[in-house]
Amino acid sequence: MARSERLSSILALVAEHGHVDVEQIVDTLAISPATARRDLDALAEQQLLARTRGGAVAHSVAYDLPIRYKNQQNSEAKLAIARAASELVPRGAVIGLCGGTTTTAVVEELMSRSDIMMPATDPGLTVVTNALNMAMQLSMRPQIKTVVTGGVVHQRSYELIGSYTEAVLGSITLDVAFVGVNGIDTVVGPTAHDEREAAISALMASRATRAVVVTDSSKIDKRAFAAIGATRIFGTLITDSGITNEQHQRLTDAGYEVIIAS
């Protein structure tokens, strides 16, 4: 693996977990501990992360989005989830999408649909989003009406948050909302690392006729810092085939319609 690829992969690990240690880098990238430490030192010199004893933590800079989106973990699972999510969206629907790698995959899947992209006098799809990267992608598709919520840019994720975002979302209705999460369990429901992003995700879900969690199976039985609304705000979960039978049963018993993307 080239050095540039190693550095990008390390940043992807930090973006995903908020921290990384040398042992994790060694196991993931199959490199020596000495090489891992040199790479961490190089990234720290560029102020892309902060070194700790035995590893590193995320630095408050805007590397997160490009690395996070270009070097996805569990990318095959997310593509499968995106295809399953697309099947829930009829042509002409109004949908909401919060930021994240899985929801970005949903956008890309929707943009590949011929029924949505065919020329017509009415929009093939209306997308409401608070994610700047999605808005940029969608702005190139005249067949899709793109509504950006407005708000204050979160420097780490490029998502729009705050009272301006809430004001826009509070004045619209959606057919379907797709929300990515950092964790989901049957007690507290879906959760996110950032409480401000969690609040926007909960509000978007509350404005939809159908609110859907889209997440790969590695996030099941995990909890992050901030709960995303009430536990019953979401009725559907789309995940990949890595979900266990026991997890599936518990989520179903908790009231979720669980869709497993093949």
Structure description:
- The chain is α/β, with parallel strands linked by helices and 262 residues long.
- The protein has 2 domains: 3-60, Arc Repressor Mutant, subunit A (Orthogonal Bundle), CATH 1.10.10; 75-261, Rossmann fold.
- It has helices at residues 3-17, 22-29, 33-45, 64-70, 75-86, 101-111, 114-117, 132-138, 163-169, 195-206, 245-253, and strands at 19-21, 49-52, 55-58, 94-97, 125-129, 144-148, 152-153, 160-161, 174-180, 183-185, 189-192, 208-214, 226-227, 236-240, 257-261.
- The protein has a 7-stranded parallel sheet with strand order 6-5-4-9-12-14-15, sandwiched between helices. Strands 1-3-2 form a 3-stranded antiparallel sheet. Strands 10-11-13 form a 3-stranded antiparallel sheet, covered by helices on one side.
- Helix 1 packs across helix 4, helix 5 crosses helix 6 (101-111) and helix 6 (101-111) packs parallel to helix 8.
- The model is unreliable at 61-67 (pLDDT under 50).
Which percent range describes the beta-strand content? 15-25%
Question: How confident is the prediction overall: mean pLDDT?
Answer: 89
In which order are the strands of the major sheet placed?
A: 6-5-4-9-12-14-15
Distance between the termini: 30 Å
Sheet with the most strands, sense and barrel status: 7 strands, parallel
Q: Given the C-alpha coordinates, what overall shape results?
A: globular
CATH architecture classification of the largest domain:
3-Layer(aba) Sandwich
Number of strands: 15
Element string (H = helix, E = strand): HEHHEEHHEHHEHEEEHEEEHEEEHE
Tally of separate helices = 11
The third-level CATH topology of the largest domain is Rossmann fold
| Unreliable stretches covering 5 or more consecutive residues | 61-67
Number of domains: 2
Q: What is the CATH level 1 assignment of the largest domain?
A: Alpha Beta
Rg from alpha-carbon coordinates = 19 Å
